[in-house]
Amino acid sequence: MPDRVVVIYTNQLSAKARRYRQRYDDFFRAQGNRVVQLASTADRAVDHEQLLTLLSTAHECVAIGGDGTVNIAVNALLASQRSAAVSLTVIGVGTGNDFARDHGLQHWRWRLEQPVPNCRWEALGLVQTPQGSRYFVNHVGTGLSVDVMKLQPRWMKYQLGALSYFVALLRYLFGPRANRSRIPRQSSWDQGQFVALGRYLGGGFCVHPTADRTHASLRGIFIPELSRWQLFKALRCVLQGRLEQAEAIELQHAADGAHITIGAAGALLELDGDNYEQGPAQVTVVPQAIQVNYINQRRG
Questions:
Q1: 170: enclosing H helix or E strand
Q2: CA 3, CA 102: separation in Å to the nearest integer?
């Protein structure tokens, strides 16, 4: 009987993910592993429960999909209480792929070419709301990011890929101001609030260039209500990797033991690009939460 069990969790809506799943199934079986496949459903709660069962005997979890797929796999892994025994492998074939990009995993074949991968402990972000708690791998946001998601229909994501984030952002920038969310903070209003764990969000926008997942800190990003021109200038700084030079944007930092608060009652949150609960939310960093397989190379 094989000693190792590999669970392959796949975004069933992605033709690429379904194709690559079989390649990885053949690869792991050829190495003498027992492989169990799980295709995603329309209900993330169902996926979570099925993953919990499968991870109880697993040694490696391979998530083939986008950041939403990774988020589901990670939350199931932490809930299984087997993060010390199960390592995570990510094959990024989603729209944004910010987790894979942050780890330099740009090609779907990388794990096939590395039979014995490098592995390290990494941090996660934790969101706690009045409704419950959930981990995230890249970011949590409210306001602007939720509004942009509404302007990024599924067909646009499949047709344009990561470019769909930029198109949706333009639709937000030049669309009616009345459609923008307003999030209260102290005595003023924000139109967007984010907390980033990794370097990227939104399909490659670099908002936390000094992020280090092994010695993690969170970056809070607060965008006040701005005119269209002011928002354009701030977003241009983001696109150019100069977020610190965007004078209108307030930045906060939190390391282990500290927290950042975002959101408000009635304001929807999104985690790693998927809608979650309503705020307010207290966001903290959880050090050494998961074991991640990666390529030992300098990230650019």
A1: helix 163-174
A2: 31
Model confidence pLDDT, tens digit, residues 26-71: 999 999 999 999 999 999 999 999 999 999 999 999 999 999 999 9
Peptide bond into 2 cis (omega under 30): no
CA–CA gap between residue 89 and residue 252 (Å, rounded): 31
Tell me whether residue 130 is exposed, middle or buried, using C-beta atoms within 10 angstroms of its C-beta: 0 to 12, 13 to 18, 19 or more.
Answer: exposed
Domain CATH code at residue 87: 3.40.50.10330
User: Rounded to whole angstroms, how far apart are CA atoms 141 and 183?
Assistant: 11
Q: Are residues 142 and 53 in the same domain?
A: no
Strand, coil or helix: 109: coil
Task: Of 154, 141, 149, give the one whose Cα is nearest residue 168.
Answer: 149
Answer with the one of 44, 74, 94 that is the final residue of a domain.
94
- Per the structure block, which two tokens stand in for 84? 């010390």
Instruction: Say yes or no to pLDDT of 299 above 70.
Output: no
pLDDT at position 2, please? 55
Q: What is the pLDDT of residues 167-183, one digit of tens each?
A: 999 999 999 988 899 99
Question: From the CA atom positions of the chain, what is the Rg in Å?
Answer: 19
Residues of the domain holding 167: 132-287
Element (H, E) at 36: strand 34-39
Residue 296 has pLDDT above 80, yes or no: no
